[in-house]
Design a protein that fits this description.
531 residues, alpha+beta, 2 domains, seven-stranded antiparallel β-sheet, five-stranded antiparallel β-sheet, 9 helices, 20 strands
Length: 531
């Protein structure tokens, strides 16, 4: 590998990142479902010949450490690659995260190479991939209840779509037209990525482009090691819990972590965390890694390129069979979207022991996942919708927490009410700031959100949420944020409390009211959140 020119290194960084961002723009413009085209629930990235991350656009943090696992799993399973191939997968135990996240991977060749020089990949959350409830985030106790499972398999071979495989996928989902459109959008985004990398290779040569990818990874590793070396050596431990309903009974599942900083490296050890179990909140190891990488990334300088080198000084250890390193056939639908948030909370709590003047209080700690779909035949055209709902950010040592935003492992947008109501037989009757729910402190936590839906026809609604019993903790003497609240309101106005996780049919005129948690406060205060 030749020595690099620093100016060229920066130019290549932005070339690679620009390709990933352009892939995302193409995916957004071509997608059919609101979850992708409006909420931007997707990620796009470039990888080297070994499947190691070269560049990822600033999309979804929970995908940060997981997409490399997908590419490497595809390399192991597919064998020989050809130009024009596209591999699809969603198997959480073969490089995926949870089943709604479909990943597409394409190889990049030059005019003479017989093996791929790079790979491009897109990952998008599809609103339905089958399973026992609309939206594919069911109250499951094994993965087979969550939807169709796809190991790494060619959807496109040498430019030709495998129609038989596509037919099988579409036959197993509730909204095949929308799924076909979103799958086509991902393939189009991959085409953009492969085309742009081809142009780069033709202009500067395969050797130079590959060398600068490796230089960028090494540069990021060096910068990250230098940053970690500036942290005080030592250990910090913390535990947090998930408030779950398992077999109709409240259950506390613990996530325990010990962070050890020594020289240029940091280790995250999850020994003592709860075992996996018959619920949807089990997380595969890639999710736990992504959460740890995210926290390290938040503590690093913005000018360090995000790639495989960033995370070489970081080790993550989690006991096999635990809730943070589950194995098949454990259900994992909510591990990606809920357990990941609690892992971040636990890691930040442990890091606060080592870096007390840099770590914020806990944010809302949940994505408030709502899936809904047609409950009976004879209504509108079949539909399925999925969204997450924002909440409060935890206060920091020098600033109040933000109100009403998506936090940590999600980076999605709000679906505009006009787009939502135009697409589905559902009204949004209230969408507001949940005033006074941020924890008090020297700096207050951000407030949560109120979002209320009115259903115009029978609709099956499933919700996966947490922080309904436990509260987002304050830090350094700050007070906790308010917990969330789920409420069913009848057409006559009668209110019924709903648990953190539920799956129920709502009838015409009934409403679902979701009140999301506030963030914790930072620093001493005299009172708690206002009810």
């Amino acid at each position: 590998m030749k020595a690099y020119d620093p100016i060229s290194l920066e130019v290549y960084r932005h070339r690679f990142e620009g390709i990933a961002e352009e892939m995302g723009t193409a995916l957004k413009r071509a997608a059919f479902s609101p979850n992708i085209k409006e909420r931007l629930d997707y990620s796009c990235a470039l990888f080297d010949a070994e499947g190691k991350l070269v560049a990822q656009a600033a999309h979804i943090p929970v995908h940060l450490g997981a997409m490399s696992e997908s590419v490497q799993a595809a390399q192991e399973r597919v064998g020989t690659w050809s130009p024009g191939d596209v591999v699809v997968l969603n198997d959480p135990y073969l490089g995926g995260t949870h089943l709604p996240d479909l990943t597409m991977i394409s190889p990049v060749f030059d005019d003479v190479a017989r093996s791929p020089l790079f790979f491009v990949a897109t990952r998008a959350h599809h609103s339905d991939v089958g399973g026992m409830s609309p939206g594919s985030l069911p109250l499951s106790n094994e993965i087979f209840q969550e939807g169709i499972i796809l190991p790494p398999v060619r959807l496109v071979s040498k430019g030709l779509i495998n129609q038989d495989l596509l037919d099988v996928i579409l036959r197993n989902v509730r909204t095949p037209g929308e799924r076909k459109g979103d799958l086509s959008a991902q393939m189009a985004a991959n085409d953009v990525g492969t085309s742009r990398l081809h142009e780069l290779i033709r202009s500067f040569g395969a050797a130079e482009v590959a060398d600068y990818a490796r230089h960028l990874q090494q540069y990021s590793e060096n910068r990250m090691r230098s940053m970690i070396d500036g942290w005080p050596d030592g250990e910090g431990s913390f535990e947090d819990d998930l408030d779950l309903i398992v077999d109709g009974v409240a259950a506390r599942k613990v996530i325990r972590v010990k962070v050890t900083v020594g020289g240029e490296t940091v280790d995250f050890n999850f020994e003592g965390s709860s075992l996996s179990g018959p619920h949807a909140y089990n997380a595969v190891l890639a999710i736990t890694q992504s959460a740890c990488y995210y926290v390290v990334r938040c503590l690093s300088s913005d000018d360090i390129p995000v790639n495989d080198g960033c995370f070489r000084p970081v080790s993550v250890r989690a006991p096999e069979g635990s809730i943070v390193n589950a194995g098949p056939p454990s259900a994992v639908a909510a591990g990606n979207v809920e357990t990941s948030q609690r892992i971040v909370d636990a890691v930040l709590g442990a890091m606060a022991v080592l870096l007390p003047d840099r770590i914020p209080a806990a944010s809302q700690g949940t994505m408030n996942n709502v899936t809904m779909g047609q409950a009976t035949a004879g209504g509108s055209d079949p539909y399925v919708y999925y969204e997450t709902i924002a909440g409060g950010i935890g206060a920091s040592p020098d600033v109040d927490g933000l109100d009403c935003v998506h936090v940590h492992m999600t980076n999605t947008m709000n679906t505009p009410i006009e787009a939502f109501e135009n697409a589905y037989p559902i009204l949004i009757t209230e969408y507001a700031r949940r005033i006074g729910t941020g924890g008090k402190g020297a700096h207050r936590g951000g407030d949560g959100v109120i979002r209320e839906y009115e259903f115009l026809e029978p609709t099956r609604v499933t919700m996966q949420s947490t922080r309904r019993t436990s509260t987002p903790w304050g830090l350094q003497g700050g007070c906790d944020g308010a917990p969330g609240l789920n409420t069913r309101i009848s057409s006559e106005g009668k209110r019924t409390h709903l648990p953190a996780q539920f799956s129920e049919t709502f009838f015409r005129g009934e409403r679902l009211r979701v009140e999301t948690p506030g963030g914790g406060g930072w620093g001493p205060s005299t009172g708690n959140y206002e009810s």
